[in-house]
Backbone:
């Protein structure tokens, strides 16, 4: 059979059905926006009736959303929402929490040290690593700009 | 041209078979035909890997029970799955007192096994061989893609790994009661598809499937319409359409009698499986649930059946290597006396 | 009424940040893990340039809840740490700023692993 894999690579990509972009974007917008709106409501709750300081309120918003994500992941609901929400659940802090919780739950069968412990960051590891690395680069720039005060 | 078709001296017969499946598979169009299913997909085991192993064990036990054979009589047992180092086959069949061969052909494992089991029967010392294959959605997903509870979206070309196991017993003695005869074999050649997208495996396997079928037709001088059905393993809707385009471009236009196990195993409108099913358990259960009964009842007399495999692993995909495909073909014919029971 | 507007702004900006990611997922072959990494690094960069601060002032949680906000918090934390303790701030700033979210994710995930098992799909 005559077969040119370079041509085929291009053809197969054209042939493949595309994801429904408009629908996916709408769901991502509504659900992602909804999560952020819920965050704003929580923020108002923490900074208002619960009398937290500004910085602390922000932290509690994150902690609450992370808790709910981990819970929904454990209950097996998160992936069913994410199937429709796409980036709507991925981009908010919920996506980070799910990326930590899901390998942890999955790796339970290999035990709590080599499984849960070692595999917890198989998905979210890059986020922490490159976030921290980018932060350190920025720190170095800040330090140079402050004329190297030690 | 190198001759690739192998004709067994005495065509081996498939004596009997058994299938085990999960919840989604039971809800599919052929769900009622599984010998055993478990709606929890766990088969009373703690891990997905041991659940898959248990499915292999159950499938083989059931096939032995249905044919009235004992494991002691098996001269060679060929088994494979998708888990690293064929773990499901090893741990599922570890207590079976039969010579064991672990095989890997990704989703083509079924026909790889049938080919080897048929060739083994050419040896006068071998009279009964067995093939067992399985895949489990949860063990495969966890190993190849992402954790089960990870929230992601799957593109339309993605396929759903079948939770299923099939066991087949083959005998070299043609006179025994059987469901089909294996009259020709065409072992596949791995074809590098050039594709790197692991969520479009149907497209990655289509060139290999086309190569196998076209080689068969070129060498035998036959055409697709000389058969009641030409069946591929798990190209899915996406791969099937590319496969038929390859056939059309190479002198076999308008093939009307093609079926794909992956495209048929689920009700694709309802089951949210995108392009269809895949995995060793896809062709592994569909042969027994759909095609052998058609041959046994005499509704179809001659079928070309090729399970298809995408030969990659998680690391090769991450390293950006393109995905080679493979398809091993077996020609199945109805037993001359089609009235005997499985 | 200010709360209502704050929620609307959070919804709008947060939603749009998600839409950008969705387009990247569907139109390029980027995997979700790459998107998350891109977002957090972009957050650090935009935070460093002082652009993200303005978005946070406008949209509140619409800017801090998405992962770019995580990057922004790191950039802000590092800057403060370097201003306060000099060179050592380069090493302590990022993880100190990320500590709350990371620790929460670790603890709740550990609890989830202890309490739940993965389910067949």
Residues:
């Amino acid at each position: 059979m005559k077969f040119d894999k370079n041509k085929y690579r291009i053809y197969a990509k054209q042939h493949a059905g595309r994801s429904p972009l408009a629908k996916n974007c709408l769901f991502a917008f509504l659900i992602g926006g909804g999560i952020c709106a819920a965050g704003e409501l929580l923020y108002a709750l923490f900074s208002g009736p619960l009398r937290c300081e500004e910085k602390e309120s922000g932290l509690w918003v994150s902690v609450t959303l992370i808790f709910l994500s981990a819970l929904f992941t454990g209950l097996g609901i998160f992936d069913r929402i994410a199937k429709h929400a796409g980036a709507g659940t991925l981009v908010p802090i919920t996506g980070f929490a799910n990326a930590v919780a899901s390998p942890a739950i999955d790796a339970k069968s290999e035990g709590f040290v080599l499984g849960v412990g070692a595999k917890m960051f198989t998905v979210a590891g890059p986020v922490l690593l490159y976030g921290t690395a980018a932060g350190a680069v920025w720190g170095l720039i800040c330090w140079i700009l402050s004329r190297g005060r030690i | 041209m190198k001759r690739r078709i192998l004709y067994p001296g005495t065509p081996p017969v498939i004596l009997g078979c058994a299938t085990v499946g999960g919840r989604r598979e039971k809800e599919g169009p052929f769900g009622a035909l599984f010998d055993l299913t478990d709606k929890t997909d766990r088969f009373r085991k703690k891990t997905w890997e041991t659940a898959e192993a248990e499915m292999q064990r159950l499938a083989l036990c059931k096939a032995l029970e249905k044919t009235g054979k004992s494991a002691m009589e098996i001269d060679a047992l060929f088994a494979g799955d998708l888990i690293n180092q064929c773990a499901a086959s090893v741990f599922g069949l570890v207590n079976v007192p039969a010579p064991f061969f672990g095989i890997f052909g990704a989703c083509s494992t079924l026909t790889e096994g049938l080919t080897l089991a048929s060739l083994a029967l050419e040896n006068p010392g071998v009279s009964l061989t067995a093939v067992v294959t399985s895949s489990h959605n949860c063990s495969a997903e966890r190993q190849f893609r992402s954790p089960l509870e990870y929230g992601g979206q799957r593109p339309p070309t993605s396929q759903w790994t079948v939770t299923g196991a099939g066991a087949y017993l083959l005998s070299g003695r043609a006179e025994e009661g059987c469901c089909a005869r294996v009259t020709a074999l065409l072992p596949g050649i791995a074809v590098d598809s050039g594709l790197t997208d692991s969520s479009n495996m149907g497209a990655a396997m289509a060139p290999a499937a086309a190569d196998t079928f076209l080689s068969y037709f070129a060498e035998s001088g036959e055409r697709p319409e000389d058969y009641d059905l030409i069946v591929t393993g798990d190209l899915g809707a996406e791969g099937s359409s590319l496969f038929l385009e390859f056939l059309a471009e190479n002198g076999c236009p308008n093939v009307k009698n093609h079926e794909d196990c992956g495209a048929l195993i689920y009700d694709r409108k309802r089951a949210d499986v995108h392009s269809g099913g895949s995995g060793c358990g896809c062709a592994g259960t569909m042969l027994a649930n759909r095609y052998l009964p058609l041959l046994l009842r005499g509704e179809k007399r001659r079928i070309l059946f090729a399970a298809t495999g995408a030969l990659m692993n998680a690391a090769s995909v991450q390293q950006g290597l393109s995905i080679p495909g493979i398809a091993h073909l077996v020609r199945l014919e109805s037993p001359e006396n089609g009235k005997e029971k499985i | 009424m200010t709360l209502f507007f704050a929620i609307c702004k959070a919804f709008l900006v947060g939603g749009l940040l998600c839409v950008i990611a969705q387009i990247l997922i569907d139109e390029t072959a980027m995997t979700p893990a790459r998107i998350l990494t891109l977002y957090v690094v972009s957050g650090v960069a935009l935070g460093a340039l002082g652009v993200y601060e303005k978005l946070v002032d406008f949209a509140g949680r619409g800017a801090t809840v998405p992962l770019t906000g995580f990057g922004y918090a790191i950039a802000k934390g590092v800057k403060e740490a370097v201003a306060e303790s000099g060179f050592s701030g380069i090493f302590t700033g990022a993880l100190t700023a990320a500590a709350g979210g990371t620790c929460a994710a670790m603890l709740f995930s550990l609890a989830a692993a202890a309490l739940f098992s993965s389910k067949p799909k």
User: Anything to note?
Assistant: Chain C touches chain A through 85 residues (CB under 8 Å).
